[in-house]
Amino acid sequence: MEHSEENQPESKASQSVWLRVLMLAAAGLLLWQIAAHSGLAQEAALRSGVRLSGVHRTVLRVWDWWSPGTDERYATYFEALKREFEQLHPDVEVVFQYVPFPQYEQKMSTGL
User: Fold this and answer.
1) Which helix (DSSP H) or strand (DSSP E) does residue 94 occupy?
2) Whole-number Å distance between alpha carbons of 13 and 19
3) pLDDT-derived band at 24, boundaries 50, 70, 90
């Protein structure tokens, strides 16, 4: 009986360690999923000039003050335009970047 009582604190400590490891793994998986779905992985690949498929592509970044989220027709139109351009120019990756109108002039001045 004494033997099992001595093992209980060690068992609780072991469970605590495993619980922490499990929680860290779950948090890491959650962060990885968030990064994957938010486009961070694709953005990092684009910055390096490599598409996730491994093919080197030039990035054409298009700044616009209209948010695709404001109108579904706008988003559909520019997605079709992007697809068509990329089909004609397979070595180019088009990335539309929304810049709020009040910051657009500053963004253009800085970019030029």
Assistant:
1) strand 92-98
2) 10
3) confident
